[in-house]
Amino acid sequence: MPAPLPDPPTVTAPSQVQTLPKESRLRLRPVGIDTYHENVAYLHRDCEVYRAEGFKALSKVEVQLNGHSILATLNVVDDARIVDCGELGLSKSAYRQLRGLKPHFGPASPTSLASLASTTSATITTSTSMATDTSADSTTDTTQDWAGHSAQHISVTISQAEPPASMGALHRKLQGERLNLADMRALVRDIAQHHFSKIELSAFLVTTNRDELDREEVYFLTQAMVEAGRRLDWHESMVVDKHCIGGIPGNRTSMLVVPIVAAHGMLCPKTSSRAITSPAGTADTMEILAKVELPIDELHAIVRNHRACLAWGGTADLSPADDVLISVERPLSLDAPGQMVASILSKKVAAGSTHLVLDIPIGPSAKVRSMPEAQRLRRLFEYVAGRMNLAIDVVITDGRQPVGLGIGPVLEARDVMQVLENDPDAPMDLRQKALRLAGRMLEFDPDVRGGDGFAMARDILDSGRALAKMNDLIVAQGSHSFNHHRPALAPLSFEVLSSRAGMVTGIDNLQIARIARLAGAPKVPHAGVDLRCKLGREVQAGELLYRVHAGFASDLAFARAAVAKSDAYTLGQAVDMPHVFVEF
Amino acid sequence: MPAPLPDPPTVTAPSQVQTLPKESRLRLRPVGIDTYHENVAYLHRDCEVYRAEGFKALSKVEVQLNGHSILATLNVVDDARIVDCGELGLSKSAYRQLRGLKPHFGPASPTSLASLASTTSATITTSTSMATDTSADSTTDTTQDWAGHSAQHISVTISQAEPPASMGALHRKLQGERLNLADMRALVRDIAQHHFSKIELSAFLVTTNRDELDREEVYFLTQAMVEAGRRLDWHESMVVDKHCIGGIPGNRTSMLVVPIVAAHGMLCPKTSSRAITSPAGTADTMEILAKVELPIDELHAIVRNHRACLAWGGTADLSPADDVLISVERPLSLDAPGQMVASILSKKVAAGSTHLVLDIPIGPSAKVRSMPEAQRLRRLFEYVAGRMNLAIDVVITDGRQPVGLGIGPVLEARDVMQVLENDPDAPMDLRQKALRLAGRMLEFDPDVRGGDGFAMARDILDSGRALAKMNDLIVAQGSHSFNHHRPALAPLSFEVLSSRAGMVTGIDNLQIARIARLAGAPKVPHAGVDLRCKLGREVQAGELLYRVHAGFASDLAFARAAVAKSDAYTLGQAVDMPHVFVEF
What we know:
globular
C-alpha cells in the first residue's frame, strides 16, 4: 500500500545526510528564580519552539550563546510575564553560566581563595574542561537583571540536548558494574558542568552509596574531582592542613591549631566552609573576630607575612563537582564513606595541601559510632591519600559530646579566645583536643621527633605565641569588634534544667545541634546553646544544664518546642558512661 | 561567664513547652510554571518569612489552606512580578493540589475511566489516604489563573515541613535493609501525595533497583500501590486484560485481541496509555479510528452493550504513586524488574481485572534479551499476581524486530484494520501474535479446552466477527474519519535504501522507534516509519528498506540525521539470524 507522496522525496543515502541539529532562536531572558544547583529553562507553552517534538519528552534542552552552551531542564510556562512566546527564560545560576558570569551564592559576591591565587604568586592550573569563564565581568549582574525583561535582546539557540556523555557510565554503575578513571572523569565533568539533573545526581549518589565503590574507584573519583576544578600550588614543599569529618558541635579546633602551627613557622593557608547543616562553621566563627571574605591581594599578603590565614574557602572553584553533589547529599542525608573521602581529599589536594591531619570523632551520636567503622574509614582515607600523594595522619578522637561549651558562632568564638588566652575558665576539652591535633601536625616537620609535638604545641599555646599569631591574623584580615570577655549574646533566652539528680552520661550531638540551629545559629550569630554541664558531671534536680539564646521570639519558641521533644541529655550512673577508645 | 539577659527568661520545664509550629500567613498566588510532578513553592528573597531559619536549609515547606496541606520544594525568587513579598507562589500542579482541583495533564482535560465508574454501576473503593479532592469544581481553573495575580486573596499558612513519615523507611532501604508492608504503605502514600522531592524519588528508585527488592517486597510494593489509589469493581467474576511489558514498535495486538475476546463474550474493558517514550501507544492508535476520551456515561454504556472498550486509561486515579514514579524512571531509563511488576500489576488490579495475559518479548534490542532473564521475570510476575489474587498467563514472544509494518499512530491503525479485514497484504506477524495472545485469553474461559484457544481466535477473526465487534466499538465510541485503504500519511518523506545485498538479520527496535519519534510520531499522528523489509528477507543493494514520513521539515531533517547515524538494519547471512525460543 504505497503512501501518497505530495512532495516527491529526495532519496538520500544515509551516509550523505548531514547532521542537522533541531534548533531555534529565541530571546534570552533571565528569570529571577533560584533553583539551587539545577539549571532550569522556561519556555512558554504557546511557543513555536516548544511545539517541536521531543522537548517535552526529553525535558532537557541545550541552550547556546556565542559558542557557550549549557544544559537545562525544561519547565513549561503559561504566564507571559515570566516568559513570553519567542523568549527563553533561564534560572539564575543557569543564566550566569551561559553568560560566563561568576557563580553566585547568596546576595554577597565574595572573593574566593582560588581567585586570590590567580593574580598572586600561587599558580593555578585550570582544567580545560571548565565551561565557566570566571574571568568575565560580573558587574553587569545586578538584581536589576531579574526585573529587566530581555532588554539586552540577546539571541540564543535552543536545541534538544543529547544525553550527557557520561550517562552510559551512570547506567553501567546502576547495573552494578565497576567504573574506571575515564568513566569517573566523564561523570565528574558532566556533574561539574551542571549537565546532570537532580534526578540523575541522586541516582549517581545512591548507586555509589554504602560499599558500592571499591577503594580504587574512590581514588578515581577523587582524582577526577581534582581535575574538574582549579588547583592551587603554593610553591612550598610542605603545606599543612587539618580537617574533621564533622558532626560534633563546638568543634572549633582549627582556630587553635592554625595559630599554633603557624607560630612554629609552618605554612597553613586554612580555608574553611560556612555551616551547611551545623550551627556554625569555622568561617562563621572566625567572622565574629575578623573579616573572612577578603580581596585577593590582601589575603595573599597575609599568607606571605603570617604563614597562615583563617578565611572562607569559597569552594566553588576548587572542586565544583563536589559543590553540586552536596546539594543532593544534604537533603538525602547521605554520607557514604567513598563520597566523603573523595569530597574531602579532592578539596585538600586542589587547595594545594601536601600534609593533612584528619580528625575522625567516634561516639554514639557522632557520624562514626564504632572503632571498627573508624578504622575502616581511616584505611580508606590513607589509601586514597597515598594514591594522591597527600601525606595524611588520621587521628581518632572522642566524639561522645560537643567540644567546648558554646555552640553558635559568638559562643564558639568566646571559647576559642579563652583557650588562646589561657583563661582558667576555658573549656579544657577544646584545649586538649586542639593541642593533640596541633602536635600531630607539628610532627610532619622532619625536625620534630615523634611524640614531641604535643609538648611543643602546649608550649606555643602557654607562652602566648599562639594568641599573638591569632591577633596578627585578626588584625591582618580586618578585626571585627568583639569583646570575648563579655560577648553580646542574643537577647532572648531560656534555661534548661535537669529534671532529676544523676550523672550526665550522654549528650546527643545531633539534638544539641538542632536546638542551636532552631534558635537561629549561624544566621543569627549571637544565638545558640551554652552548655553548663558535660559528660561525667553529677547534677542535682533543677540544676542548669544549658542556656538557649535566640534573636527572635519565633526562633526561641521553635527551639523550646525541640527541647520539649528531647533536651539531648541522658542522666544515669557512672557505669552507663559510653566508653570511647582513642589513641593519644 | 554569664550572658547578658536583657529580657529575663521564663524558665520552663521542657515537658510543659507547647510545640509551636514556625508558620506565617501569606497570600496564595498561582505561578504558571509546569514543574511536572514536583511541587514547587516560590518565595521572594526579601520576604519576611523567608528570612526565618530553616527554610533555606530544609528547602521543603508545608503549605496549608483550610486544613488541606501540601509539601513543596522551595525556590527563591528575586522578581516581584513572579511573587512579591507577602505572597507565596505555587507551581501549577501544586496549586491544583492545594485548592483541591483535579490533576491536569496537558491542555485538554479528559475524563478518565476511573471517574467514569464513579457514577455508574461499577463500584469504586477510594483510599482514605488520597489527599486530592477530585470532586471539587475544576471549572475555575483557566489559564486566566496563571496571569491573574493573587486576585482572590486567599491566605495560606507556610511552615517548615517535617520530613515525610516514610523517610525513615527510605533511609533503612538506603542502608540495605528489607522493608515490610507497613514501610511500603508509608512510602507509597508519601509518593502519591507528592511528599517526596525528585531527589528522594530518584533515591527510592535507585535503591530498589536491580535485585534490591526480594519478591515479597515487590508484593508489598504492589499491594501498597493499589491501596493508595482508586479501585474499580466490575461485578463480574472474570474481567480479562492483556498487557505487554513494552519496547517493541508496532506491537498493537490489543486492538485485535480485545475485539476477538469480546466477540466471544468476555468482559474486556481495556484501558490503554498514550505513548510516553514510544512512537505510539494503543490509545494514540485507537484515536485514529475513534474517540478514546469519552464522557462517563457513554463509556459505561459501551462496556455494558459491547462487553469491551478501547479507551484511554487516564491512569492518574488508579495508581497515583506509579504516575509519580514514572516521572523519574523515564529520565533515568530505569526499568527494574520489581518496579515493572509492581507498576503493571497494581494498575491491573486497581482497574478491576481478574485475569491477565502478559506478553514478554525477547530479542537483542528488546527490554528482555535472554530466555533465563524472561523466565526470572515470568516467575516474579506469577508470584506477585498470585499474592494479589490475579490469574496470570505469561506468554514469551518474539521481540527481535518491530511487529507489523507501520510505526506511528496512522500507520499502525492501517496494519490493524488490514488484519481485521483479512486483507492478504496484512502483516502476518501481527495477525499471528494477536491470535496467539487472544487464544491464551480465551482459554481463561473454563468452557474452553487447553490448546483450543488459538483456533477459536482464528475462527472469530476469519469469520469477520472480530471486525464487526471492532466496528461496533468504533461507532459506539464515536468514529473518526479514517480511510485505512488509503491512509493520509504525513506529506514529507524520504526512503532508506539498502547499501548492499544480503539477508536482513537484525532490525534495532530502539533505533527504529527513535527515528519514528524524531519524524514526529505520535504528536504528528500521520508521521512515522513504514517498514518494507523484515527479518529474513534477502535484499539487493538499493532496495527500499523503509520510508520515513514527517509533517514538518525540521522533523524530517532530524529523522534524517538519526538515520545517518544508524539506519537500524543489519545485513548478513542466514547463519547470523538471532534465534529466539518462544513457546507457542
